[in-house]
Amino acid sequence: MMFEIFQYDFIQHAIIAGILVSFSAGIIGSLIVTNRISFLAGGIAHSSYGGIGLALYLGVPVLFGATVFAVITAVIIAFLTLQNRERIDAIIGIMWSAGMAVGIIFVDLTPGYNVDLMSFLFGSIIAVSTNDIYYMIGLDTVIAIIVTYFYREFLAISYDSEFAKLRGINVKFFYTLMMVLSAFTVVAAIQVVGLILVIALLTIPTYIAENYANRLSTMMILSVIFATIFTLTGLIFSYLYDLSSGASIIVVSIISLIISKIIKK
Q: How far apart are CA 166 and CA 229, in angstroms?
């Protein structure tokens, strides 16, 4: 009986989207956790709500508005945090609240607003469109190419930025590039788990993976595998028990993290 759900187009789209997002979330999540900037990803996620509100107000595609806003936010955060690392928490907090406030105001100003706000906050993977899937395919391709080609540079800045500078690596450029890739990944993940839960999707699979990996590349591969398993398992549970897909995915992830910690001990 359970296999009958795979006959529906929206379920097929959800599965494809889950796999595609898991790929980008696993790779970028590994960089985020290794660089200890999980909070930065949260700031980008919540700031992107400003782009969602602006897109609704202007009548342009929400995915486009969220992407533009997220990328701009990522560049600003990267620039400010590179200049003043001591104030990183305050900078992220300001960008976080500013983006949410701008988004809410534009939503209030949008005439005839009838879009489900909860789908942006907590995700709606079963509502993923064909254009969203194309976006995710393009994102995964770009991430795979960039991270593979510049793997040594990302590895260097992740574990010892001072040593990377001595080797002539442009730390500021690759840090900013990592933030921009994080922004694209965050927007894709919002489609699956929503902006409130996006940090968990980017970090939990990596937290589990780092217990079984002693290399960044291995961590990335394991993170992709774990993220895929959690996403698809959560999707199945959400369908069978009529639960929120985003919340189901994160609950499965958290339970897996707890089990992993118990087994590790």
A: 40
CA–CA separation, 38 and 134 (whole Å) = 26
DSSP states of 208-225: HHTTS-SSHHHHHHHHHH
Give me 44's structure tokens. 């980008």
- Cα gap 15→239, rounded to integer Å: 12
Residues in the chain, pLDDT under 50: 1
Query: DSSP for 99-150?
Result: HHHHHHHHHHHSTT----HHHHHH--GGG--HHHHHHHHHHHHHHHHHHHHT
DSSP per-residue letters across 9-36: HHHHHHHHHHHHHHHHHHHHHHHHHHTT
pLDDT computed for residue 10 by the predictor? 74
Instruction: Report the phi/psi class of residue 169: left, alpha or beta, with left for phi > 0 and alpha for psi in -120 to 50.
Output: beta
The pLDDT score that the predictor gives to residue 147 is 95
pLDDT at residue 86, rounded to an integer: 66
CA distance between the termini of the chain: 38
Determine the Cα–Cα distance for residues 26 and 226; give it in Å rounded to an integer.
8
Give the predicted TM-score (pTM) of the model: 0.89
Contact predicate 136/143, CB 8 Å: no
Per DSSP, 210 falls in state T
Mean pLDDT across the chain, nearest whole number? 85
Domains and CATH numbers, the chain: 9-264 (1.10.3470.10)
The DSSP letter of residue 160 is: -
